[in-house]
Write the structure tokens for this entry.
Amino acid sequence: MVTRILTQATAAQRHAGSEATEFPVRWTPAYFPFTSPSWEMEVLFRGEWLEICGCERVELFWDIGTLNISRDRYNTWVSICVNNAVPIPPVHVTQGDVLVLNVRNSLDVPTAVHAHGIYHNYTDYYDGAEMVTECGIPPGENFTYIIDTTDQVGNFWLHSHIQSQLTDGFRTPFIIHEKVKPTTYDEEKLLYFEDWDLRAFDDQMDIYSTLNIKKIPTAYRMLLVNGINGNATQPVAFVPGKQYRIRVVSLLTLFWIKFRMPGHTMHIIDQDGVACDPVEVDGLDMGPGQRFSVLVTAYDTAEFNYKYNVTLYANFIDPLPGIQPRYYSGLIEYQKNAPLKHIPEVNDDQLAWSNTLDLQARDGMPLLPVDRQIVLSIKQFTPKLDIPYYTFGDYAYNHSLVPTLFTALSMGDLAFNSSVYGPQAQAHVLHYGESIEVLVYSDNVNDHSLHMHMGEYQVVEVGPYGDAVAHNRPAVAFQRSGPSPMRSDVVTIRSFSYIKLRFRVNHGAIIFFHCHMIHNYKGLAVTFIAAPDLLQKHMKVPDEVTRMCKIQNIKTSGNAAGNQGFDLTGLPPPILVNRG
């Protein structure tokens, strides 16, 4: 591509009658962390060789299967594995690399891989959202995901987007390293957290989706840190005087965590792959899917070792000492066998916790104007005893019979009519260039973790909504962002509150917006159809993508029912919310 641009520039000079400038190009060996071999493209300009770009093809082979294993060091349970290994090894690349992920599905059900936080500019079919942007990989089949990292850096993760597979262990960090450090530090550390359950997914749904949980479930979830029991993780090694960038990644599916390093000061420098002005905090309060990088400076001496603390909690379960919340700790090791430094305990309400609204985007992007506001209201209703659904609108979200992406690509001008996507898709059609404000209300007793695919939103404002006190929930205080609101792809909406999020439609995409907890599978999702005309103009779906659909007898064109026009015959009736 670079060569073509330079050639066209030379041709344009000749066409204009100017003296043409030749741009000799060469490839030279280079070094990028985690990628080998690596190369840089250089161009000769005014007598000097200048680097234009550097890249590498990082190719991985994943055979997805299951393994009976003890992840908590006490109980054996079935976990999804990659290449017969658990935990799944984190994936590291350098910005500009192309990740080629060759997947073999050795499960007995379909699977898919979602690169959480990745933009997928006109390659939505690699987003891994089953029946939203693709059909999934059938059992016994192979599929290759191609993920370009040119435009992003930071902490992301890879996980299945199909039912129980995320909760059953199909998840791992995906780190895109900068070519040049964004700030000064000596080393990096990675800590990632998972909640782990010793029950089948359907049993979890029955327990955690009950209308009013009062008692502790019989097999309460536990915390895994870097893949194993949170109290048995390898120490985090510190060298006196060094500064560390600690990448903290939440792979949680239902619970929240609070992470602290008592005795050490943390400065947040990025969230969800977006750099921010440094902000000092005492700890990170993280919901499912959130990621941070923090800078921590080690003490000058190795006289003592220290602890880091992690609290696993859920606001929908009543407290019970020793069980809910659960407390875990690990070692910050300056020197083997050094005494542990005692740090006095401090109540959570006296500490400064991470808060997206306290952060300012480092690139200075100003607050977006509002061209259109979309109002969503989280509701909980129960079509059958004690198994509620959660919705953003009049219907509980459910999959279409045709992936929504293929409907947008095949329906011509009708792709701008939300009706062709079916009522169960909860579709909102957006136009190129629009600045959208999503206003979400929740008078629900649960917190929710709201995730947006294909980009990030500005977190603009939160405030109280409904009667929190009457339901024994803390009231949410009003807060508005600064002039350069932080952007993220996951945010927590607390019970009995509202939140305002803004983003601009800058390309065609199918944007799935959903709760990142298991409530996603109980209807709490909507679909934003962004600039379908640009999707139709710029996207060419590879044959391998549609082959996965044909094997499963899934149509790849037509409306939500696979028909033409507004004929939705054959589409299962949507679950209508009774809001009375």
User: Anything to note?
Assistant: The first helix runs from residue 2 to 15. The chain has a mean pLDDT of 89.
